[in-house]
Request: fold
Amino acid sequence: MKLRSRLPGTEKLKREKIYVIFLFLGLVLVAFVFITLGNMLYRQTEDFPALIDAATNLVVLKAIGISISMAMASTLIAFFFGVPLAYFLARKDFPGKSIIEGIVDIPLMIPHVIAGIALYGVFMRYGVIGAPLKRLGIVITDAYLGIVIAMLFMCLPYLIDTARAGFKEVDPRLENVARSLGASHWRTFREITFPLAFPSILSGAILSWGRAISEFSAVLILAYHPISAPILIYEKFTSFGLAASRPISVLLISICLVIFILLRMLQKGRK
Reply:
């Protein structure tokens, strides 16, 4: 009887032990990120006036504003075109589906500089798409639109893949019940499927925005100008070193951190 009475506690201890082990393993990565970014933030506190100068510099603020706004634009485009594709991939099986899914995920696999070269070849003034657009007076290279396109190419898999996973979690029987009660396919999607999958879609949009704002190589090749924040930081680092680039980096990280916290709070509020 004593042995039996100890078994539940023993099993509970074993379960708790694995949590402790997994927590320790996970904290290694957390510490890796924390030490890397924390060291930069700590070093910058030793030169706080430089951070104030960066925060009041119109060139720096414009570059950060460009990065934030262009990332939002690319995320909205990815949302508008990506959510319908994610729903289709989640609900339909068809020949070539794996090929489409592979094409969507290609930006995750290739080096970003290759993505930039590929985009430049297509959208330059004499490219496959760039030439016709040039005749219409639309220039992609070294323009705001070029920044959006470079960011879009790199961030779209995050939104599509996450939205697709969210749609798969919605039970198709709920849709069938709504359709049997007379609701149209569009109304069923709008009032049942999309709201239930929205937490995943929002999470994908947040990841997509974060990936877009951090893009450097593809933007560098396709649209060096107008200068976005990562390119400005790169210029400062290569020209003047760590002391000139770190304050802008800390400022960008701080702004993005505040935005991420607000978005995550919004996400939790929607659950």
User: Anything to note?
Assistant: The first helix runs from residue 2 to 45. The chain has two domains: 1-46, 56-270.
